[in-house]
Each structure stands twice: as C-alpha cells, then as structure tokens.
Amino acid sequence: MGTMHVVRSLAFPVERMPAPLLGLLGEFRLIVNKSIRIALRGDIRSRFRLSKAAYAGLSAEHDVHKKYIPSAFEIALAVLKAYRRRARRGKETNVPYLRRLLLKAENQSYWVDRETGRLRIPIRGTEAVQLHLPLSDWHRSFLSDPSWGLGSLTVVPGKIILVLRKESPKACEPASAIALDTNEDSLDGLIASGREARLITIPLGRVRQVQATHFRRRRCLARKKAQDRGVARRLLEREGRRERNRVRQRLHRVTKSLVASAKDRRAAIVLENLTLHGAGGRSRRLNRRLSSWPRREIHRQIEYKAALAGVPIIKVNPAWTSKTCPVCGARRRDRVGKVFVCLMCDWEMDRQINAGLNILKSALASNEALARAVRSSPVPSAMMW
Ligand SMILES: [Zn+2]
Fold first, then answer.
1. Residue 119 CA: distances (Å) to CA of 75, 104, 134, 280, 380
2. Average pLDDT, whole number, for the chain?
3. How far away, in angstroms, is 181 Cα from ligand 1 center?
4. Do residues 374 and 194 make contact, with C-beta atoms less than 8 angstroms apart?
5. What is the pLDDT of residue 280?
6. How far is the CA of 59 from the centre of ligand 1 (A)?
7. Under DSSP, is residue 199 helix (H, G, I), strand (E, B) or coil?
8. Is the pLDDT of residue 21 over 70?
C-alpha cells in the first residue's frame, strides 16, 4: 500500500455569485466541451496528449486564467472515460458533453484565507473575484488544522466546494482481525487473534426504528398533501434529509468506537466490498445490500476513520457470504433462515454471524499478513468459545 490521502469536502452555499464568476463557469464548460470533442476525434486518453493537441488553440480562443485549461482537460477525460465505458456496453451513442455550469480550480489557481474565509478566484490576467465563504465552527475545525492541506476548488451555481486533503498514517501491520457482516440494525461477526476468536454483534443504535418512523411519517405526509404535489415533495424532501441526518449521527457513534477499538487491538477491519461491479448473476439479497444507503454510509464512515487512525481495511467479495458453510465449504442454494444450517456437515450458526465467519475466511485466504496474525482457522475456535 502506498501513501493514502483522506479527503474532506467543505461545501459553502453562495447565494449571489458575481457576474464575472458566472461568466467564467460558462467559459470553463465551453473549454471542457471543446476538449471532449478534440479528444474524441483524436482518440486521446491521456492528459499529456490532450494538452499537446488542444492547449495552444484553447488558450488562444479563451481569455481565462491559463491554469484552468489543464483542469478542464481532466474533467473532459473523466467524462469521456465514463462515456467509453457506457459505449462498450452498448448503452450510449450520443456524443457526450458537460451540461452543468462548472469551474474546477487546482490549489495553485485560487487563494483562500483559512481564518476569515476570504476567497480570491482569478478570472483572467490580473482580474479576479473576491468572495467570503460563510465559515461555520465545523468548517473552522478543519481549516485551522494545518495538517489538512488545500485541494481543489469546485464552483457550481449557488455553491462552492473546497476540498481538504490529509496524508493518512501508514496502516499498521495487523495483529488481529475484526470481520463484520453489515446488516440492517447491527454489524455481526467476530474478533480473531492468534488462536482465539470471539463472536460479536454491534448494534447500530436503533437505526432501523428511526427509518421505520420516518417511513410512516412520509407515507402519512404523502397521503395528506396528495392534492398539492409541490408542497408534498418539499415536505418529503425535508423528512428525508432529517432521517438521513439522524441515521448518520447514530452511525457516527458506532463507527467511531469500532475504529478506536480496532486501533487498540491493532486489528484490521474486514468488510464486504459493496462497490463491486459486474459480479453478474447477483441474488436479490445482494443487490439490495449493494444499493442500501445506510450500509454504504456505515462503510464510508468506517473507511474514512480507519484511514485517519492507520487501521487497515480489507474488503472481500460479498457473494455467497451468507450461504456458504465455513466448515466444509458447501453452499446452500435455497433461502437461508435466521439460522444457517449446513446440509452436508450439520454446522449450525446464526445467519449473520455465519456471514461474518465467511468474510473473515475470505480475508485470511487473500491476505498473508493477516493470515500470519490470525493463525488458527476461525471456525473451530469460534465453535468452542
Ligand atoms: Zn458444512
């Protein structure tokens, strides 16, 4: 593993954007769209080649701060990459273009006072716009910490996003593992080190109840305001935001203590890889798992906090984790109830814990450092403890 960067995005609402800035967004979008066409025509995929083919022409045609042009190339190539992927799957035929007004500036192109939030964005030559970013205490907690470096600045109509970056400490060599299956209201699995393994269930702070309450409220709202679609939509959106904030807060408490305890034990955290694409022939359960917001949010929080704490994260393929027998390897192709029972060897275990066992097993098979630390096979010991 090389050095890792942790990234934090600070978003600032900006109600009135100065006209020269809005003009710059339009100009930038135009440069991106011209670059896309040039790259497409010349089958160009690298920044270096695009720069050679397009920089001189674009910088003559557009009177903007010159450093924005390479940023536009980067966005053009990203848009094209996504387009080519879709085209390969036969999903896309239209020539791609950037619809959204946008400016992306690298950290050497803008200037910000980290104490006051004063921001200077060059337009062209010596011309620039000045803005005041409305700093909250939360923003200040990052900006006043010099270990967070400035990354890129993104401007869209009504909003400015400032990215901060920090180099995370090198992940430690794991001495143990915490393998977890991510479920609707708990994380389940085991802690294993040396020859010991202990089953654990970490409740998610009644997140499911919060979601159920909000679900009822939303349904009620939709029924009451059925005549007025606009009002209903606004109220529903507000309910949705409240729900996500409440869930997020509860998850923060859980993920914080999980990562702290992993750090104390010098444990790697093993999770399912929920971003796996193209696995093909997925079960309904797996698709639901991959698309559920709280699950992705739990993983996002764990990964982010682990990177800052130097706790290694190992991701394993989630296919079959709940349907495989960790003892003999046999798979059940039918529906598994609350308890997993192996038809071949009679192994019996709570379904969620069983998935945790399989997750650990996959991690041990793919990670030598972890296999050295956790020497015994987790299954027989888990059975005895
Ligand atoms: Zn079995």
1. 23, 14, 11, 47, 60
2. 87
3. 19
4. yes
5. 47
6. 66
7. strand
8. yes
What is the whole-number distance in angstroms between the Cα of residue 292 and the centre of ligand 1? 30
Cα–ligand 1 centroid distance for 191 (angstroms): 21
How far away, in angstroms, is 348 Cα from ligand 1 center? 9
Residue 378, pLDDT above cutoff 60: no
**Ligand 1 center from residue 141 Cα (angstroms):** 52
C-alpha 318 to ligand 1 mean position (Å)? 19
| pTM summary value | 0.70
Helix then strand then coil, % of the chain, to nearest 5 = 45, 25, 30
The answer on pLDDT for 140 being more than 90 is: yes
Distance 266 CA to ligand 1 centre (A): 31
State the Cα–Cα distance between residues 234 and 158, nearest whole angstrom: 19
Count H helices and E strands in the chain, helices first.
11, 14
Fold category of 176-204+250-384 in CATH: Nucleotidyltransferase; domain 5 (3.30.420)
**What residue spans in the chain does CATH classification 3.30.420 cover?**
176-204+250-384
pLDDT of residue 31: 97
